[in-house]
Automatic annotation (TrEMBL), chains A, C:
Cofactor(s) listed in the protein's UniProt record: thiamine diphosphate
Gene Ontology MF annotations: magnesium ion binding; oxidoreductase activity
Keyword Transit peptide among UniProt keywords: no
Gene3D superfamilies reported for this sequence: 3.40.50.920, 3.40.50.970
Biological source species: Lentzea albida
Protein name: Pyruvate dehydrogenase E1 component beta subunit
Transketolase-like pyrimidine-binding domain: residues covered: 21-196
From TrEMBL, chains B, D:
Gene3D superfamilies assigned: 3.40.50.970
GO MF terms, alphabetically ordered: magnesium ion binding; oxidoreductase activity, acting on the aldehyde or oxo group of donors, disulfide as acceptor
Domain Dehydrogenase E1 component, first and last residues per copy: 72-360
InterPro entries: Alpha-ketoacid_DH_E1_comp, DH_E1, PdhA/BkdA, THDP-binding
Species, as recorded: Lentzea albida
SUPFAM superfamilies for the chain: Thiamin diphosphate-binding fold (THDP-binding) (SSF52518)
GO biological process: branched-chain amino acid catabolic process
Residue ranges, annotated region (Disordered): 1-22
Keyword presence, Iron-sulfur: no
The keyword Transmembrane helix is assigned to this record: no
This protein's UniProt keywords: Oxidoreductase, Pyruvate, Thiamine pyrophosphate
Protein name in the entry: Pyruvate dehydrogenase E1 component alpha subunit
């Protein structure tokens, strides 16, 4: 990591090193710590200043760091990303907030054509240390364009890195690691889980950014998920345990590059894999995992890799999202099918 | 499903926002000036005090009946807005986008349109919807999460609400090009299109491209920008140095700023602009200078970013009050009329509440329907598998 | 199909019903036939009028159908797609040309947020009979952004249909079928194959638009490809035959919805599948095919599904494209690996 | 690899384009007027006939030495352009993007910049590159397909060529914001940024958003639009009703049209604009009114869409000739000087040919390098597998 690696605990840690925080508060503290550690870190987005963002993730930052480090930008996503590129060239480390998942598309061209390619184009002479924060996914009863899961578009784009956090500790640390990273990082935040709580130790980085993690060991089948579906998968594993089925749960954390070594290892033991994701399945990250696992674990698989995903439809009106989104029952149903194969 | 409340109150445990935003004195002054004064170019026909004034370029002959109609429109749509807002508070809607304060801009613009004209709204255009003959109940599904608007956009000549800021401006430009290609432009019988967007939207590339296209193709398109002074928490100064109507200067078509709280002026200017378009002299940009009196949406907390003084000041410019004063002063309406409108509003409110609380949830298969006009066998298989799974579930299996 | 189904052969067919044409000429004649059959069909794009497009696919159309049916638009892709949406609502059937693959991204938002969703949003009240033509892929020695294969982004997007032609007969017929289709169709044209020739029978539609087709039967392994890689795969099958290996070659033709029935059927016989595509593999259509086939043909596969694709990098400088693009040797190498599994 | 020729001649079997495009008489007149006349606002200091004229707002004191320098720049970069064009014809480059006719616009603008200023080019800015100290040979890789530009954009303060129309305008706006945030704006020592784009580019949303951002953040940014009358085959009328410099009106910053074939005027106006920006009075739009004397690229065939008359007319406005006439008339340069420049041009051409024909192909592993700054294990595995495969192949395997 090329960014100054200061000791952030001193600057940013609240009184006790271990606290119970929501994901949203953990992100807020993580952003604050990154801004304190490096004056080149700036925030850009719509309504992120006085309002603190529609989800309050940047709450208080403009007040404390000023309007030049927390920019309420004009309303245009290509503008946000495109000017972030210029600021990055000038030596800044911009953290862009896209207000909702569905509004990243006006900025898609700048992401795909400039952010992803400038390092390659210049053979490394220009770096793109840009973080694009995207509150993503459904389950919040919102109107159209506010519940989407566009991460596969970015995983398909060479030159970008894509991660998603699923708990407060990861939220706190991964956002800082993403800001430290000299590559552009799409940072997907599980908005329906913003207010779930967990312990955060602000003194010790629990691991690296681009690594998957086994959250719960198990022996009968493997569940792989990321972001909001990690909670769902853990719940499913709990429920399965009551029925005597032991499920291993892996939090992908990094969606591109994929870190599938723990998955391969797991599948070689369990012989069965269910991939869980809210996004439509067609040509998606879930497809990629299935494609890789069937190749790497060809002789270990006792059933095909199954996918439990959002359907291949636009995100439906929110009264239907309970049916659209994978839930505990759909995950267990897939596990049953896998076990019965 | 997760309750709408969660959406409304993003941080359930958080204390209410401590105090109203406290800008510097300088900012207050700047802020107040910016939102209050429309400037010398503002077209006004009815002052906030209800005085009829004349304008050299835009004037209008209005009958008592017509003005009563506009008054009624505004009262009724305001009632719809307040009822829906309350329904959201009661958990009956996931979210609501209030139009409070923008009644004159929308009724004036909407009533300037002919049935053969077409409209492309953003997401706050409940008043325009009303003038297009859309039942207010047809709007509710969007905010309750049962559908994405249930009117027929072709029949009503009112496009679906567009949420991605700016998208509809290009769609409207294309439609207006189509009107021209169809030979429907050039005389008084011509057709025209209106496109609605906010002050914040003017920054989007799509809005610019809409301006370019419409100018180059001489499209019969009226760009109607409701400058309600705020894009969520951002004041217009974050989008532009100049008053927004002046943006048109760079493209070679007229831009006019009208008092968007003056239904008469808005009607007059929009009628003129539509007529220009029908005759082939489009496009035209109208900036309706108005104010968002309520929050951005029911999820928003404006006390974090703006002063209540501003609101108080704009209350004096209420779009409905000035018409009422004028109607009374002209003796164009008596208390019976006003009571009648009130009663209509009550009935409408009642209907809305009734309808809303009885709205059925859509069936699960709706998730899969109408994704394609000509079907998709893979999706149909996905649907069948899911419905099988659901019915197995219902049968007590698993 | 809702569009008027006139007999086009009469209007558009040249003297002899069977002619030898290049793909580019076949597309040109197909567009002409569609314009003759239905006055609502219009063309939009940059330089498609007098110039006839940089590849001359629309050559002569503006001259014959006028500036109101063949529009040289302002230079902005969001504008092209966004106004096409409005024209479609007005009853037109716009055919948009994107000058090169890499320039579709400024129009991405309109495609994803409007073109793909309006039918769903309005429960079928608004149709989007828009064709977006994209000359795609590499191998032509071009500069950056002129050789990309962005089809997976669109296959991942519900509400769109995605097809690609690989030969003159399909070019002639598929473009007309796409224009007839009431759904939005992304039409990917294999630009490096524009000048390859083949027979076109302009009197009889050879099949449906959304169907894959077995181009060459075989018994030892199956190759699946689309667009420019079909030629490469056929060449590989020829070469393999000389070595005594019998490869079945399937032209996907439709990328979304995928029509994998012929692939399943084939894999059940051969037990081996190699997917060939120029696009980077990560979270791609090739991934989706692998994911589906491993599920449907779990017990038939004698080796994992292998993918031969462009690498997960930006498209390289053109002096390197020979290495970047899958060629006969890389395809055969994968076949060998599959056979040796 | 497929030969560059394939790219150059899209339709190998096709007959050459039958005849030049034949517009109506009306179109001819319109076309000629549109490209020929800069209008009353055109800033000019040196007429096509080589007469020095004065201008009330923009004037410049130029020494003989400076003007000789500008002349030399223009002659050399034109030679580079013609050599590269010829190299493409010989199959040594896949494509070339000629700047012929735009030498004054680029040398004038480029020489107005200081070393501490930053430039964001489009893809035709070989003249700007020259003024930033980039060796012409460093441009060749882009067009030969060996790299995407080999200069160091940070050291040279010259961004890579940007091919996606409009993208660089936002990137430039961001960079200029950074100059301001760094406190480098406000006095004569201030920094500024220049951004280059074409007439066609003005339609793109990104260019608009760049205008919005730069205006709202008072960015020290000079938008330099080279209106060479054509965007490939489309005349400027397809992009705008108004002269392009007037676009700035709608955003609240100055827009100026300069004779882009007049190196003095371009230098004067750009210097002024940059100075305004350094002092904090940015942004500013300059439209350089010029002409693309050659094809859009070597793949293009302008005879399909424009008249040779137009070209002939513009030949009379050649940017180099008028300086030569003036230098001679002023007795600022003698034949020795002109011959010296010619000799330099010959040497440069020779160097370019030599360099180009000897450019090595990049190694295959370059495909995989610098995709990421911090690596990607999956990609590294993909690379290793491929290199293994290639080396096995080399070893005669398979
Ligand atoms: C492309 C896009 N980005 C962001 C948003 C989120 N958003 C919804 S409304 C809004 C502000 C719009 O302001 P304005 O255009 O002034 O319209 P108003 O809401 O005031 O009527 C924003 C940022 C969006 N809907 N679309
Ligand atoms: C987004 C995008 N769309 C299309 C193209 C293809 N293209 C390359 S140059 C060009 C014309 C540009 O015209 P102009 O802006 O006037 O610049 P000029 O080439 O005349 O210098 C087009 C359409 C592109 N490079 N990028
Ligand atoms: Mg607003
Ligand atoms: Mg040009």
């Amino acid at each position: 990591m090329a960014a100054p690696t200061m000791d952030r605990s001193a600057a940013a840690a609240p009184a006790s090193p271990v606290q119970t925080l929501t994901i949203s508060k953990a992100l807020n503290l993580g952003l604050r710590a990154a801004m304190e550690a490096n004056p080149k870190v700036i925030m850009m987005g719509e309504d992120i200043g006085k309002l603190g963002g529609v989800f309050r993730i940047t709450d208080g930052l403009q007040k404390d760091f000023g309007e030049q480090r927390v920019l309420d930008t004009p309303l245009a996503e290509s503008g946000i990303i495109g000017t972030a590129v210029g600021l990055a060239i000038r030596g800044y480390r911009p953290v862009c907030e896209i207000q909702f998942d569905g509004f990243i598309f006006p900025g898609f061209d700048q992401i795909v054509s400039q952010v992803a390619k400038l390092h390659y184009r210049t053979q490394g002479k220009i770096k793109m240390p840009i973080v694009i924060r995207v509150p993503f996914g459904g389950g919040i009863g919102a109107v159209e364009h506010h519940s989407e899961s566009p991460e596969s578009y970015f995983a398909h784009t060479a030159g970008l890195k894509v991660v998603s956090c699923s708990n407060p500790s990861d939220a706190y640390w991964m956002i800082q690691q993403a800001i430290d990273c000299d590559d552009p990082v799409l940072f997907f935040e599980p908005k329906r889980r913003y207010y779930e709580k967990g312990e955060v130790d602000t003194t010790a980085q629990p691991g690296k950014l681009f690594e998957s993690r086994v959250l719960r060991p198990g022996t009968d089948a493997t569940l792989v998920a990321y972001g909001p579906m990690v909670r769902t998968s853990l719940d499913a594993a709990n429920a399965a345990a009551e029925d005597g089925t032991s499920l291993e749960v892996i939090d992908l954390r990094t969606l591109s590059p994929l870190d599938l070594a723990p998955v391969f290892e797991s599948v070689r033991r369990t012989g069965r894999l269910v991939v869980v994701s809210e996004a439509p399945s067609e040509s998606s990250i879930a497809s990629e995992i299935a494609a890789k696992v069937q190749q790497e674990c060809f002789y270990s698989l006792q059933a095909p890799v199954l996918r439990v995903t959002g359907f291949d439809t636009p995100y439906p009106p929110s009264k239907l999202e309970e049916e659209f989104l994978p839930d505990l029952d759909r995950v267990l149903h897939a596990v049953d099918r896998s076990l019965a194969w | 499903m997760s309750s709408p409340e969660q959406w409304t109150h993003p941080e359930p445990d958080a204390a209410p926002a401590a105090t109203a935003a406290k800008p510097t004195a300088e900012q207050v002054i700047a802020g107040l000036r910016a939102t209050d004064e429309g400037g010398a170019d503002l077209v006004q026909l009815l002052t906030p005090e209800g005085e009829r004034v004349s304008h050299p370029d835009f004037d209008i002959d209005i009958t008592a009946e017509e003005l009563r109609g506009l008054y009624r429109d505004m009262v009724l749509i305001r009632r719809v807005d307040r009822e829906a807002n309350a329904l959201q508070r009661k958990g009956q809607l996931g979210i609501w986008v209030p139009l409070l304060g923008q009644e004159a801009a929308q009724i004036g613009a909407g009533r300037a349109m002919r049935e053969t004209d077409m409209a492309f709204p953003s997401y706050r255009e409940h008043g325009i919807a009303w003038t297009r003959g859309i039942k207010p109940t047809d709007l509710l599904g969007i905010f309750r999460g049962t559908d994405m608007g249930s009117w027929d956009p072709v029949e009503k000549r009112f496009h679906p609400y567009t949420i991605v800021i700016g998208n509809q401006v290009l769609n409207a430009a294309g439609y207006a090009m189509g009107q021209k290609f169809d030979g429907k432009v050039g005389d008084d019988e011509g057709e025209a299109t209106m496109c609605f967007f906010g002050d914040g939207a003017t920054s989007q590339g799509d809005v610019h491209e809409g301006f370019v296209w419409a100018a180059v193709y001489d499209a019969p398109l009226v760009f109607f920008c409701q400058n309600n002074q705020w894009a969520i928490s951002e004041p217009t100064e974050r989008q532009s140095r100049l008053p927004l109507y002046q943006r048109a200067r760079g493209y070679g078509f007229p831009g006019i700023r009208v008092d968007g709280n003056d239904v008469l002026a808005t009607l007059a200017v929009t009628k003129w602009a539509l007529d220009e378009c029908r005759h082939g002299n489009g496009p035209i940009l109208i900036e309706a200078f108005t104010y968002r009196m309520d929050a951005h949406t029911t999820s928003d907390d404006p006390s974090r970013y703006r002063l209540s003084d501003e609101l108080e000041m704009w209350k004096l410019k209420d779009p409905i009050e000035r018409v009422k004063v004028y109607l009374v002063r002209q003796q164009w309406a008596d208390s019976e009329f006003f009571e009648g409108v009130e009663a209509e509003a009550d009935a409408l409110g009642e209907e809305l509440r009734e309808f809303c609380t009885n709205m059925p949830d859509p069936p699960a298969e709706r998730i899969f329907s109408n994704v394609y006009a000509e079907g998709n066998p893979n999706l149909e298989a996905q649907r069948d598998e899911f419905l099988d799974y659901v019915s197995g579930f219902a049968g007590g299996e698993h």
